[in-house]
Amino acid sequence: MDPKAFVSGMAALGAGIAALACIGAGIGTGNATGKAVEGVSRQPEASGKIMSTLVIGSAFSEATAIYGLIIALFLIFKI
To answer: Transmembrane residues, as ranges?
Structure first.
């Protein structure tokens, strides 16, 4: 097997694995949002605190997805 083709194949495989971070972040954000909506429906007076915590948690979750996307792009374009 050509070494250059092997490296390209492994880079594509690594990019696919790194892109899985986006799936995990999406699932996590969806679960957190669902639980926040349940919490607000149970206790409407705490909606401000629940929503601020949700926004901070979602930011951290989406940061993981962005890091995975950046790594995948680096592997695809071999920067």
So the answer is: 7-27, 56-76
Total domains, the chain: 1
Name residue 47's amino acid.
S
CA 50, distance to chain mean position in Å, is 21
pLDDT tens track for 16-69:
998 888 898 999 999 999 999 999 999 999 999 999 999 999 999 899 999 999
Question: Rounded to two decimals, what is the model's pTM?
Answer: 0.74
Domain limits for position 30: 3-77
CATH of the domain at 50: 1.20.20.10
